[in-house]
Automatic annotation (TrEMBL):
It comes from Ferruginivarius sediminum. One of its GO terms (molecular function) is hydrolase activity. Pfam families: Lactamase_B_3. Residues 39-222 form the Metallo-beta-lactamase domain. InterPro entries: Metallo-B-lactamas, RibonucZ/Hydroxyglut_hydro, UPF0173_UPF0282_UlaG_hydrolase. Coiled coil: none annotated. Residues 1-28 form the signal peptide. Keywords: Hydrolase, Signal. This is Metal-dependent hydrolase.
Length: 256
């Protein structure tokens, strides 16, 4: 009941969602969830209460990151979340953690191996959670690899207005996505659609949304960065006609 009321409320807000330009950390508050796409699988999320969370930071050497966002000195997140240990998800995690003092939240083995002070290593595992400001960060499964680094994970961010954002991480579609929907009912999905040798094709990403989820917003990610990945055209062909899908370009911001 509460969830459906919140959903109606968020739908109303979505009607007024807008794209903004601005500096990192500037998208904020006033009861809205801010989302800045920084290229590939890197996003900065700002909670309704102003907590900032950096997802899978790959910035300084990311060919898709706009020039003005490559300087890692500008990032002051409250936490850095890493889904697995591959370079295109962690390249700048340690440097940003050292510069900002932010904790790194990841799989137990992965976070524990990070070259940052012990009190910034926040390891966990599927089913576990951390509180970061007004955001509860839940670990969920992902079907991929992470070596070294324990296991790959996805994350569900639960905001204090009841809304949730699911970062799939790198993954193929899997049946337990039904449980992620049952338990967390994601309102916003950051959707792996990278295809190529490593991840699900955009068509399978579409199937995951159609089969398992009922979100208000779906942002495809992790495509077009390297030649082996799905192209912008591939992603548009498979996903753009879905009413919840929003194609974001690196550097774009949105509020929900
Ligand atoms: Zn990746």
């Amino acid at each position: 009941m509460m969830k459906s009321l919140l959903r109606a409320f968020s739908t109303a807000l979505l009607g007024g969602a807008m794209l903004l330009a601005g500096t990192v950390g500037a998208v904020a508050a006033d009861g809205k969830i801010g989302l800045k796409f920084l290229g590939h699988a890197t996003f900065e999320v700002t909670s309704p209460g102003g907590t900032t969370i950096l997802l899978d930071p790959f910035l300084s050497k990311n060919p898709k990151t706009p020039e003005e966002y490559k300087d890692i000195g500008q990032y002051q997140p409250d936490a850095i979340l890493v889904t697995h240990s591959h370079f295109d998800h962690v390249a700048d995690a340690e440097a940003i953690a050292k510069a900002s003092g932010a904790p790194i939240i990841g799989a137990y083995e992965h976070a524990g191996a990070m070259d940052v002070p012990k009190d910034q290593q926040k390891g966990g595992n599927v089913g576990g959670k951390y509180q970061v400001g007004d955001v509860t960060v839940h670990y969920v499964p992902a079907m991929h690899s992470s070596d070294p680094g324990g296991r790959p994970v996805g994350f569900v961010l639960e905001f204090n207005d009841g809304r949730t954002l699911y970062d799939t991480g790198d993954t193929w579609i899997f049946g337990d996505m039904a449980l992620i929907e049952e338990i967390h009912s994601p309102d916003i999905v950051l959707l792996q659609a990278g295809g190529g040798p490593y991840n699900q094709d955009p068509e399978i990403a579409r199937m995951a949304i159609d089969k398992y989820f009922d979100p208000e917003v779906v942002v495809p990610m992790h495509y077009g960065t390297f030649g082996v990945l799905a192209s912008d055209a591939d992603v548009e062909a498979a996903l753009a006609d879905h009413p919840a899908v929003r194609i974001m370009q690196p550097g774009d911001s949105a509020e929900f």
